[in-house]
# Entry
Amino acid sequence: MIWEQVETYIEDGDAIIAWAIPNDGGYDFDTCGLNRRVPVDLDGLKLVQFMPSTDDEGR
# Structure
């Protein structure tokens, strides 16, 4: 329920939530907001992919 509130009111911010689960990595996570980080599955292991910056300051 807290995560739903974060997603609703995030506006220009970024957030990540992580929790322990019984898998090979031992965790899972989700993100929200207008950020450059995207969860990707790599052979059953969830990792973070950084997308290229869209502004001049993120060089």
Notes: Residues 16 and 56 are 25 Å apart (CA to CA). The beta strands are 14-20, 27-33, 37-42, 45-50. The chain has a mean pLDDT of 84. The radius of gyration is 13 Å.
